[in-house]
Amino acid sequence: MSVEEVDLGIDFSIVSDKVIKNKPNWIDRGDFYTFGAASYLDGGGEDYLKNLNKYNKIIKNEFGDILNKLIDYFGAETHDSIALPGFHIFDRKGNARKASIHKDVSFKKLPIFNQDYKNAKSFTVLINRPDCGAGLNVWDDDFNKTYHEYELGKMYVHSGGLRHQIANNGNIKKGEQRITMQGHVITFKGKTYIYF
After folding, report:
1. What's 4-195's CATH class?
2. What is the Rg, in whole angstroms, of the alpha carbon atoms belonging to the chain?
3. Each residue's pLDDT tens digit in the chain (196 positions)?
4. pTM of the shown model
5. Where exactly are the structural domains of the chain?
6. Given its phi and psi angles, is residue 188 left (phi above 0), alpha (psi -120 to 50 degrees) or beta?
């Protein structure tokens, strides 16, 4: 599996307005923001639990319709001890940031993690696109790079084991944001969960 494009029928403009309206709830991560707890940033400890207790309620209330579409698509469920899918927000302060090339293994930080896991996946939905574009660089096992341009409102799904990097994130103008809904999927002991 490389990168699969899926149209869930998400009205990205409404979602974008809601995310921007919730700016007081964004978490400043230095050169970008998240709206929601993020296991790869907060770890699985007290900060993660504190953030998910605050943000899960807000995200469920504001974006419950999208969450239901994701749950249906992946045949997944949510869990009280893990964060709901949330958002990455980049503005011009992140222009100097060099995005890392990585594989997604944040499931190892989840409070419910155990070694009986399978089918790790990651997904991104483009909600707001700056003029410079938004996309994803991916590498195959032979280190050949491919670029995937994101389309507004579409979801992009890939294996958590795929080597990848945020692309087109270097020329965001004043007043613009690159907003994506972010999440992961993991199966433990026959149950599939979505999380951030």
Report:
1. mainly beta
2. 16
3. 589 999 999 999 999 999 999 999 999 999 999 999 999 999 878 899 999 999 999 999 999 999 999 999 999 999 999 999 999 999 998 887 778 899 999 999 999 898 889 899 999 999 999 999 999 999 998 999 999 999 999 999 999 899 999 997 678 999 999 999 999 999 998 999 999 9
4. 0.94
5. 4-195
6. beta
